[in-house]
Amino acid sequence: MNTLNIESIKGISALLVHAAKIDEKYSDQEKNLIRGFIKSYLKNENSEEILKEAEIMEKNSNQLLNFTNIIKSNSIEVKKDIIEHLWKILISDNTVDQYESNLMRRICGLIYIPDKICAEIKLNLLKSK
After folding, report:
1. Single pTM value for the model
2. 24 in any annotated domain
3. Number of structural domains, the chain?
């Protein structure tokens, strides 16, 4: 499953930062979830440094395409894992607003994940909370 290189992880982490900031509340809990994502793929790297770089990338970008293009060419398993991490961030504050839902629909469309799979991932996470 570990098919992502460090640059891909930075880009995907920037997407996770974007998702975390979409409700204008970027919490320590969300940062910890992003660090967890980074560590799940890059065990020996400094997750704090990668998170800082991802935050800069996110701040300097105005398009989802920059981040979703990284994901598109990966396996369905990697895509599902990324969607799961995105949902973990979005539901971490126990609410999902219309902007967050819209973001997920757009991301899933851009990386070719069916809405049904996206919804199943969300429901499984909500059940396990």
Report:
1. 0.93
2. yes
3. 1
